Queue: 3 jobs
Job 1
Amino acid sequence: SLMFSTTMSKFDYLFGRFFGSFIVMVLIYCSIWMAFMTGYSIGKFLPWDPSWKEKEMLVFNAWSYLQPFIVWGISNLFIQGAIFFAAGALSRSTIVIYTQGIILFVLYQVSDTLLSDIDNKTLSAMLDPFGVRAFSIFTEYWTPAQKNSQIVPLGGVLLWNRLVWCGLALLILVGTYYSFSFNV
């Protein structure tokens, strides 16, 4: 209640909290691609794998680690962060956030089962908030060698999926701003 008695505006309060938590989540998520990148560049010199000279490895390319992080990591963190932030800011209850996480997980599992039966692959890809279905449709006819050596370009149904769901997350944040009551 002390926070609400300062001269801080509603915009500063809400979006300061959202972007503060979003940046922390992005920094935590950075450890994943940095660990993979470090493991690839250092792993071939470790002594317990003497056959590394015989193995043919691709040339190191940092973009192969950064592009999926930007396309998948940051966009999914933004979408999920907007949904969880809206529920937390509007309800002001942590139990709502925990319950929402469980419900979101269960709904995703159910929708994944239902969407796998849909004949229209584009519709099923667009209804997936995490982009997994769009990714699988995009790489459906790739060989294992292509899947191991190529980056999935941001185009087609994958691009539209990311744009639609990030746009929806922005709408959720705008709706949260207008629905939030800046008093105790």
Note: The two ends are 6 Å apart (CA to CA).
Job 2
Amino acid sequence: MSIQSQLIKLIISLVTIATFIAAMHGYRNTQEQLNTILDDELQTLASFILNSQYKDKVQASSKKLNDPKQALSNKKIYQVFSNSGELLASSKDAPSEAMSEKNGFSEEAFAGLRWRTYKLANQRVSVIVAQSDSYRRNVTERILLATLVPVVFSIPLIGLLVFYIIRKSLSPLRYLSSEL
């Protein structure tokens, strides 16, 4: 095996391993940051709803879809309860019973899906907002895929550049070898 082929294999292997490690680190960090952003969105929605006035029970409209799980899996839903436990308002697809009993963030299961919920209360009402885990996963995966694909596709380009540079750098050695 020639020095050139050994160098090329070694450098491309190191670049691939380093790229993989960097991509995994970036994947984890990006996933954490996106979950924080989605959680902030739930908190903002809960705060907005909590600061709104409720006089009558209000049903929010939503598009009718054939598959109710599909409808629920792509959105946020909410509920507003009085301190006495009366449902004052909710999104159309929200269940009639409270989606969460815990204040703050929690993971719950209802309507055949897993949900990330956030509950916020004041002296008058409690607001519960929920976002399906499948929606959160889809959003996160789309963004991560968009950021990682260029990194993965750069490996062959780096391999070609390494091959060209090593071949060019070792050409005097190849010339000397052929003369000997």
Note: The CA atoms of residues 19 and 25 lie 10 Å apart.
Job 3
Amino acid sequence: QPFLKEGVSIAAINSPSLCVVSGPFNAIKELETQLKAKGIAGRRLDTSHAFHSAMMDPVVEPFINLLEKINLKKPSIPYISNVTAQWITDAEAKDPHYWAKHVRQTVRFADGIGQLLKDQKAILLEVGPGQTLTTFVNQHPAKTAGHIVLSSFTSSRDQETPAMLTALGRLWLAGKQV
């Protein structure tokens, strides 16, 4: 936070030692220079917008107006909110203002992982390409040897089926019905 200038926001906290910042191009470029001078590693993400920053403010109200026209319902499957890092409540899930917060507020992924890892028998399965989320979970200080963390895909197309079958087999070995 000491490096953040006006207009630059913490967009996501992915792990205790890894965050994403967002804001105007020139401000981000200046921040990159400052971090590099201090020996702090950084990498620019290729995104279309400065998500979770003040640059998104103009779309918040129109987004709320759009969501107010939709019949939002309570979730049928419980999940952790990236806004609160707590289990979603029925009231939040049905509130257009709650969903608009996703556009502007920091994604609290690391805190959400911590919430999931409170269950000492948690099994976390990353569904989708890559292993980024699995890596974040494995780096989390609350992760213990008792937690099972799996990814279901790999970046290698010729290994997709073996990776998925391995994940399914490990779920079955952990006593889960597949």
Note: The first strand starts at residue 9 and ends at 15.
